[in-house]
Amino acid sequence: MANVFSSIGNWVNERAPNMMPAYRKHMTEYYAPKNFNLWYYFGSLAIVVLVNQIVTGIFLTMNFKPSAAEAFNSVEYIMRDVEWGWLIRYMHSTGASLFFVVVFLHMFRGLLYGSYHKPRELVWLLGMLIFLVLMAEAFMGYVLPWGNMSFWGAKVIISLFGTIPVIGNSLVEWIMGDFLPADATINRFFALHVIALPLVLLLLVVLHIAALHEVGSNNPDGVEIKKGPKGNRWDDHKPADGIPFHPYYTVKDLFGVGFFLTIAAFIIFFVPTFGGWFLEHDNFIPANNLVTPTHIKPSWYFTPFYAILRMIPSFFGTAFWGVLGMFGAIALLFVLPWIDKGKVRSVRYRGTGYKVALFALAFSFIGLALVGAGVVGEWVQEILTPMLPPLSNAAFWKDSPFWASSTFWENLVGRLLTAMYFGYFVFLWAYTRFGWEKTKPVPDRVVYDHD
Amino acid sequence: MTMTKRQLLMKKYVSSIALVFGLLVGATSAMASEEGGLPSAGTNVNDQASLQRGAKLFFNYCVGCHSLKYVRYSRISEDLGLSEKEVMDNLNFTGDKFGDPVISHMPEASGRQFFGKAPPDLSLEVRAKGADWVYGYLNSFYLDPSRPVGWNNAVFANASMPNPLWELQGLQTAEMKADDKDAVEKLELSQPGKLTPAQFKQATRDLTSFLEYAAEPAALQRQRYGIWVLLFLAGFTLLAYTLKKEYWKDVH
Amino acid sequence: MANEVVDHGRRRFLTATTAVVGGVGVVAAVVPFIKSWEPSARAKAAGAPYTADISKIEAGQMVTFAWRSLPVFVVNRSKTQLDALPSQDGRLVDPKSDSGSAEQQPKYAQNEARSIKPEWLVLVGLCTHLGCVPDFVPVMKPEPFDPEWKGGFYCPCHKSRYDMAGRVYQGVPAPKNLLVPPHHFVDDTHIQIGVDPKEAG
Fold this sequence. Notes:
heterotrimer; A: 451 residues; mainly alpha; Cytochrome Bc1 Complex, Chain C; 19 helices; 1% strand; globular; B: 252 residues; two-stranded antiparallel ribbon
């Protein structure tokens, strides 16, 4: 048996002599720092989710009908009449949300340990492009079931392009191929969702990993292991603090995958709608172009950006500023490597100002997500009401509209958080540009406390 | 020495696992209880007897106007533990075939004529509105002479539907709030029906259970399989963890 | 680093165990995807047994019904047509339906007339050559494709011929007799196609 394998191996090697070296370069001879922690699971988990989305997506297309008249029915057909169709659909819908959970954590890891600093700017930029394409992919997928949230989500998001001066209105009609989201819209979104964007996504993922393997992985200490001492038990010329990706990180990631799948399975089998966050109640009502759902909001993973959009009022007669703010929030992340001129990478050795600012950024992001989901205004009102007895007086409540409205609180909190989000980038630039940051000494070698 | 350190690490992993699951369960139960102000329906789709009673109510009182166009009679038979004959004799009054979906035979036009709009399909009602809402709705009809059909509903104001279960429940009248004439303060049973209030609550609970089942028949399967999938994955994860520990002995 | 001891046996055992358990998991995960290709509840409902009303079919006439989207021929054979059947045996590939065509009918229809009641012939109307729908040519008269024609089915695609019991003639492309689907008599005027007599009880 072993002979058969080795002779097949030789046969392939003769004809493709660079294949084994490529495998070694990326697996057994890719030396990754040995001190990866919990935050380093999310890259491989993102690949697992991507594979899940592709496989379940292919099987969904086998029964889904991309037409305004049939889409909703075909989804229920999958859920009820197709053998195991419900599982395939829940795997896809849960996977979509978990994709964003994993990607947000993966991105935050980059911020924590300064993984975007030189020489990894290209890795970061490719990652940001993946994020952008992923958002487009998720949005179009969300439209396909053609429930009432799909329909109105499509209407609202496409209308964002209508705020672009001069060409806006004709651009909106061009995207929809009609005057409202319609058959033409769902059909073209289907094409983009199932083939065009996945191809782009796969290409970007390959480039993202290739770019990473050119420069090598960063680590929680932000120490460049290539610049440290050489020689480990596998190779005298490789970094002393590096270990072969395979088998050490493959087995470690395997454990991460097992743990992640357990959580995913819990959601898929026991709470597939996740209380209306992963599959929304109003999306079980077929698309109705005459009735907008009462609680219209995008999927949870868009809510932080959606909140920024809502918090910026229109002025000079155009709503373009909100759209600009929303896309600006993403654009700023793109240029982060050039905003942050800090001398050290890892949060472990950065100044206190950076730690506070990073916490504020994470806080504002989660806060904006809640604002975008429309739950913050009522919360604040509920908390404040008993604290301020005169305000809880019903008559007074009614006479003072701006205190009484949850919208007032929502806007107040939302605008503070928006300022906090953008403030991070401004602060970071000034903090590092003018040398205000007092860093701690970075060790020469990575810190690894083994047992 | 090494053992204690490993135990510490193990403890760290176990507690983080517990934390993640705790957060998940906490988050889901918090979200579940978020439906503002409605009494809990207390439904259980795994209670087959309740589903059977609910199905009987649905086919006696609801299917005249409302369809379940995504649910087949054959699927009801399979999931509710009823034979083909029982379903066809006791539930199917329209003469449709066993494999057909449940379609009301009321023409849409007459629905519009009687109620102002065609009665909606109820296949996904519980997924769209929630079980508590449906249960609350079924219990909150009251007489209101100002409405075209003479009925109103405290959960869904100005609903165009009369109470289909009035013979069972009896007649309710509403006492309006002092400061808001359009808001219901409380409902009172002015004329008792065939069932006691407690029996009626149970009947509407059964009916809501059946509609909850109809909204997602797969719920029965996924919970049944889910437990085995979780056990398997937990075992695999533990195995992968042991494997990782074994390999990482090399790393110092 | 010098004093470490790697237990290769344990390592190999754990690797193999994880691989096997993981493999079982992958196989289990593949099953639902394979099963999703089986006929859905809708297809099964559409393919449910079909009850045909045969009260209006005159002797010598044929009516086509749809069962599982397949054309099912129901023929009410006349006395003359039935009497002509044995005379064809010498020209047929498998007159007793017991060699090549043994699987082409249920046991209860494995007889000269290939039917439960002699006059009522029930066939899936698809040629056993490449699946075309044969024409019903009941009149006994010399035909261009057969000067000694005693009535039967003629496939326009590749000129296969069958007699009044759906038995295939020698020297044509089709290899087997036409398929008799499971069926039984609900009463004198109704046939249920898709259910065997013993299943119906």
